[in-house]
Amino acid sequence: MADSKEKSVDNPEKVADGMSALKIKQIEDEVASSYLLVDIGANLTNSKYSRDLDSVVERAKDAGVKKIMVTGASVQCSKEALRLTRLYPGMLYSSAGIHPHDAKTWTDDCYDVIKELASNPECVAIGECGLDFNRNFSPQDVQMEVFEKQVQLACEVGKPLFLHERDAHDDMVRILGKFKDRMPPAVLHCFTGTTAQALKYLEMGLYIGLTGFLWKDKSDDGVRSILEKGLIPLDRLLIETDAPFMYPNVRGSKIPANIKQALSDRSLSFLNRYCTFQRNEPCSLPVIVEMIAAYMKRPVEEVAMATTINAIKLFGFS
């Protein structure tokens, strides 16, 4: 990692939302010497990790990832995610929900089952839930009905929403708008939309979660452009791997030379040794935060610290 100096976010009092100055200073000191990162979305219940999850978690720790939220995408997946938090206490946390792809599996008892899972302190969010009109693995009307029920549940239990949206921006905004006066904080996970969409979500108070998708985005109005223009405030930014998906192919020709040059040897060593297109891992998170910082033209330590504080604030991590 390159030499670093202590950095502060633009308005630490606002970002920390009451977090003590001493706590912020402790985080700054740790970030100054090594990354202190939170992966807000990793699918560690995926069968690709069934044989070596211990090693995957250890590599994440070695890379500077201190907390991981294991994504719940179905009732069974949410139960398994919660089980993993008991195996790695203090490191793994979970969410509970039904992904739009699986909305067609919703039954009358799902609401109560997810509510029960969410009553556990290790379960820190409702989701992954939302709308995916790109693949439509579940009918759109079913997706909207199931999504609305999960937003209602998040309002009832008072836990943040972990949101998924593909090609469904208008309906996402419309449904969330029904709950605007009582909706808990929310993050739009793995954002891949346009400038206008990002600005609308930010206007609604949402956080924006970014992944290794950056490597393949070349649109004039996509995530890269949004970062280059500085449109996402640091106090609304979160980072994630979405492992085993969203492998950041930093060797790709779509990534400008100056961005590649900003990637540290240490971060690349984790990526190149342990991550592939077939199986990304949380240890790739340092490369992702370095790419984001390079596009934003901000010190990576500053971006790392801000996203960590945001995750602590949003999900209540210790």
UniProtKB/TrEMBL annotation:
Belongs to the metallo-dependent hydrolases superfamily. TatD-type hydrolase family. Deoxyribonuclease which catalyzes (in vitro) the decatenation of kinetoplast DNA, which are circular DNA catenated to each other, producing linear DNA molecules. Plays an important role in chromosomal segregation and cell cycle progression during eye development probably via its DNA decatenation activity. CDD domains: TatD_DNAse. This is Deoxyribonuclease TATDN1. A divalent metal cation 1 binds at E128, D242. It comes from the Eukaryota. Gene3D superfamilies: Metal-dependent hydrolases. GO terms for molecular function: exonuclease activity; metal ion binding. InterPro entries: DNase_TatD-rel_CS (IPR018228), Metal_Hydrolase (IPR032466), TatD-like (IPR001130), TatD-type_Hydrolase (IPR050891). Keywords: Cytoplasm, Exonuclease, Hydrolase, Magnesium, Metal-binding, Nuclease. A divalent metal cation 2 binds at H164, H189. Pfam families: TatD_DNase.
